[in-house]
Structures are given as structure tokens and as C-alpha cells.
Amino acid sequence: MNNSWKKILLLLFLVMTIGLTACNSRTQPAESSTPASSSKAAASSEASQAEPVVIRLAGGDFGVPNPFRHTPRGPGIQKMRLIYDSMLEKDENGYIPWLAKEWESNDAKTEYIFTLKEDVLWHDGTPFTAEDVAFTFRYYEEHPPVSDDIHANGKSIIKNIEVLEPLKIKITLEKFENVNLGKLGTARIIPKHIWENVEDPLSFAGEGQVVGCGPFVMTDYEPQTGSYRYVAFEQYWGPKHAVAAIEWIPVSDSTLAFENGEIDLLNVSADLLERYEGNPEYQVDKQHPYHAYRLMMNMKVVPALQNQSVRQALAYAANRQELIDKVDRGAGTIASMGYIPDYDKKWYNPDIMQYEFNLAKAKELLGGQTYHFEMLVGDMVETKIAELLKLSYEQVGINITIKTVDTKTRDGALKQGNYELLLIHTGGMSGDPDYLRNIYGEKSTLLSGYSNPTINDLARAQATEADEVKRLGMIHELQRLIAEDVPIVLLQSDKVNYVYRPAKYNGWVYTFDSNKPDHNKLSYLAKP
Asked: Which segments carry the region annotation Disordered (predicted)?
């Protein structure tokens, strides 16, 4: 551990011996299973939470948790956000005040004035001001963070920033877009006094590299084992802490680790669910799946994949119901080839190409041509999916060589474009459908060698359409075009079943756009 972190945290460590505010049940799942005879567990919960709570979760190396060096997937983002706060935060209903206690905008929604909280401190004791917010956005313009909220189509959405008062800031935007408030509000603020002299944030490893003003401070990080330890920031400005510390530890089998009491939260597979349902020791939360397995196709490296007929053949020849039956044990749903999931009733378009399993159609599209591709996978589940796809694809003349690497290498290959076909399980399927622009639009970093001018134009247009009925029509048309062109073969989504022991901790909550309670900052803070 860096010595500077120890200096910052020396006085904070006393929090581990102080009883923290007990936290009431705040879980608001899509569906919940709690036995009626749980009064004993509830009483036990009240007693146990009078003592400092340490939450332990399954670990894994997701990088240094600052805005520039964490990995781009959910667990990396989560760890960073526990250290760094933003002007707004998310709860189960939408955006809520956070570092900004209030805000206002002009009628055109191109100017926002944020009034910031008083008495906010950085982890090193330096006061937080509007100068930090102004600096953050200016720095991000030159040095985009991993989760880049202030660029659209490769350009900054910000026209001007003006500090009006020590705790008031005005941000003028280049133009109206539907997601502007969310982008500004959820950008993580960094301390000016640390980063103003850092020329290369990707290589910065000096004092203050993980100093934020969020509720937790990192005291330990071991990349070799994927272990992290966070402790409560005693001078945190916001809600009281519900837990004293969070530890991510290495586990080889998450289910076994949960049953042995080594970790406190488990996303359990469907075939093991009956082990926990009806048992008063456990709470089961069932959530919509916001992730999907998907087959990425590198059209830059493999010219044959630029042919829409080849991509459609890969979709028709994928037996997605078989994947659900054999990989997800029946507990999954076929993903929409238009990307937006069918349970998003507001935005989902059912009138798109569905690609029901059809080997004859796939052969017809290939026109007698045969192909050979390498498919990169990153774990055992993806390997099983790849093996099933390989058997189906062979029947239509597409031969697959499966290459298995670790997930970090696989993720790096996707980012760098070093693959032909690639299997990955990832999210980004909830919230405002502007995510279609990020995934399929002209500045997408996920689709190597792919571009569709019609999709690009429509993705840009929907972003600035204020009429919700007109925008709905645009989003429906985008899904139709995306499904027809198949830039990604969307496979299946596995259902989400979180299990935990309420006697140990019963504070897990969800946000309006996430089904992962451990990724939600509010899960670790006491309810007001």
C-alpha cells in the first residue's frame, strides 16, 4: 500500500471501533422472497447492526479506483464511485441532490447553475469548492476519464464554465441534449489541488491518486489477488455510514464462499435458488437482467464481416434458446437484436427482426461460401457458449476456433481491436436509450470497423429531440435499423437473483438503472 494512503488514513482507522448507525431495511427489488416467520432474523439484524459492520464481497482486479485508471466495467466503476462523489447521485426513482444541494436551468436547458453543499472535505482535509468542479470539467476535456460523461460524438458538450461564488457554479452547454443533466450531474469530481499539476493521469501514481470526497477511503489494494479494502471516511459530509468497511477478497467459488460466510452477497444461479428461497436465514431479490452475452465482430480485421448477410447468418445460426437451456439452466431471456430489452416497456420496439434459430436461412444468406473465424472468450461460461455456437455454425459452413484467455486480456483485446470474434457478458442496457448512440453511433469505441451513416444520423437526432413522442419514434426506428444490420449478435440475458443474510446486513438497495446492489453507493449508507 502506498505510504501516502497510510498517512491520510491514520486517524480515520478509529472508525472501525466505533458503533455505527444501524440501518433499516431499504431493499426495493423487482421481486422479493422473505418468509413470514422472519421476526427472529429481524431481531438478530437489529442486534448485529449495533456493532460496526464489515461487508465482504468477491474480489478481482479492476484497476486503481480513480476516474482514469479503473477498468471500464461495472466493478471498476463501482469502486471508483465509492471514493469520488458527484453533484448528483442515483436512487431507485431517478437523480437526487448530492454534492449539489440544488440546481436550476434556463428554459432551453442549455445553462445550469449548481449550488453546492457546505462543509465538504477531501480525504486529505482540504475544503471542497466550486473551483474543484470547474477544474474537473476542464481537465476532463483534455484528459477524458474512463467513464466519459462530457463528450458526445467526440466533442465536449460544455461551452463555458463560470464560478459564480465559492459554492456556486454555472455551466453553459453547446446545445440541448436529453441526457445533459445526468451527464453533468454524475461526473465524478476530482480535487484541483492534486490533479492541476498532473500532466498524464494514466501514469500518475503519486500522493493523492485516490483522494476523493466520497464516503470511503481505500486503505489497501493488491492487484495480484484482486483484493481491496475501504474504510468509512469519518469526516464525510453526507449520510451516516451503514458499514464501517468494505473488503473485496479473492474467492475461487462464489457460492461456496457465500455459504461459508466468507462473502455477504451472491448472485445465485437458478438451479441453486431453491436452496435459499423459503429459508428465514436468507433474503432473495429477483431483478431484471441489464446485461447480455453478446458476440462482437471485428469488421476492421475481418473484411468478410463487413457483409451484412454474413452478420445476419451468424445471428440466425445462433440457437439462443439452447444457450438459455444449457448454459443458464432455463433461467434466461433471449436478448433483443435491437439492443433495448423487452421489459423496458417505454422504449422497446417489438416490431424488429427477431432472428429465430434458422439454419436454412443462415445457409441461404451465406450463398454456399464457407468461413473460418477465431472466437476469443474470457471465462468458463463464455467457453461453454462458444462451444455450443461452434456446433451450430459448423452446420452452415462457419468454422470456429475457440481461444480462451483471462477476462482482463479479453477486455483489453476488445478495447484494442485485437480479435476476430469475441464473446463478452456486459451491461449498459438500462436508463435513457441515448446509450444506443454510444454503442452504435459514429464515435463508438466498441464496434471495430463498423459504421452506418443512417444509424449515425438518427442517433444524433434523437439526442436533441425534446418532443418525447417524436423521440420515441426515432428510438423505435433505431432499433429496427440496428436489428437489421446486426453490428452485434445479442445472445441471451441471464436472470439475476441476489441472496444475502439480512441478520448480517439488510441495507442493499438498487438504482433506477442498475440491478446490482453492491454497485450502489446508497447500499453502504444509512437511510435518512
From this structure: 26-47
On whether residue 194 sits in a domain, the answer given is: yes
Look up residue 64 and give its three cell numbers. Answer: 486503481
Query: Pick from 343, 244, 347: which is nearest to 287 by CA?
Result: 343
What does the DSSP 8-state code read for residue 275?
G
Cell numbers at 73, concatenated: 466495467
Q: Which domain holds residue 319?
A: 292-494
- pLDDT value at residue 494: 86
The reply to whether 307 and 181 lie within a common domain is no
In a domain, 168, yes or no: yes
Give the number of residues written for the chain.
528
Domain count, the chain: 2
Same-domain pairing of 409 and 317? yes
**pLDDT < 70 positions in the chain:** 1-50
pLDDT tens profile 336-349: 999 999 989 999 99
pLDDT tens by residue, 173-224 = 999 999 999 999 999 999 999 999 999 999 999 999 999 999 999 999 999 9
Read off the pTM.
Answer: 0.83
Nearest CA among 217, 247, 267 for reference residue 57: 247
Cα separation, 424 vs 296, whole angstroms: 8
Report which residue type is found at 84: Y
Residue 163 sits in a domain whose CATH number is 3.90.76.10
Q: How far is CA 526 from CA 215, 425, 455, in A?
A: 11, 32, 44
Q: Got the DSSP string for 195-261? A: HTT-S-TTT--STTTT--SSSEEEEEEETTTTEEEEEE-TT-SSSPBS-SEEEEE--S-HHHHHHTT
Answer for the pair 246, 455: CB distance below 8 angstroms, yes or no: no
- Cα-only R_g, the chain: 24
**Last-in-domain residue among 165, 193, 211:** 211
DSSP letter for each residue of 321-389: HHHHHHTSTT-EEEPPTTSS-TT-TTT---SS------HHHHHHHHTT--EEEEEEE-SHHHHHHHHHH
Give me the pLDDT at residue 50, please: 59
Q: Is residue 8 part of a domain?
A: no
352 lies in the same domain as 206: no
- Check which CATH number belongs to the domain holding 414 and give it: 3.10.105.10
